[in-house]
Fold:
Amino acid sequence: MPAELNETAVCSVITEALKAANGSDRLTDPVTILSTMGSPREWDSLSFVSVFTAVGQAFDVELDDDDAIHFQTAQGIHDFLTEILSE
Structure:
């Protein structure tokens, strides 16, 4: 069952993906809707794929490589999901 789409859920999915990608229980900074790649520090180009995959799985959406442009900020991910899930 897909996660309910809201800002908190998006941030939670990003947080868990970053923790898993970095093998850590904590992040340097919390993920908020204002978070971007590089803040927290763990959200880098290597963990990007983990975030991309986790979001697709959590919200039960098929993502295309072209969708990656929306995955540089938490707000961008939320807005993108809102758009595609309302179609």
About this structure: The helical segments are 7-22, 45-58, 74-85. The domain at 7-85 is CATH 1.10.1200.10 (Non-ribosomal Peptide Synthetase Peptidyl Carrier Protein; Chain A). The CA atoms of residues 1 and 60 lie 8 Å apart. The radius of gyration is 12 Å.
